[in-house]
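Input chain follows. Return structure tokens only.
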Amino acid sequence: MGGGLSYGNSSVGRASVSKTEGRGFESSFPCQERRQYMKIIKKFINYCKACYDELAHKVTWPSYKELTQSAVVVLSASLIIAIVVWLMDVAFKAVMSAVYPS
């Protein structure tokens, strides 16, 4: 190697290899974004699998008898509260009619 010529790894003077460079095109889904997207999808799938596993194998579901008893308790409490609210409404209407006769 003589004469002052140097050989090296320079990118100066090389032509662009991209077919879209210079035409204003930009990749709408670069590789890095695709990997992040796939990572999110995998997390979601794993979450769904974990939910199914928990519901199918770890949750203690009530028996028919327990379910019926709970439903009766809820319906009874709802009925009692509705009656109490109705009685308060009737009483309030009577008081307002006495205070503001029409």
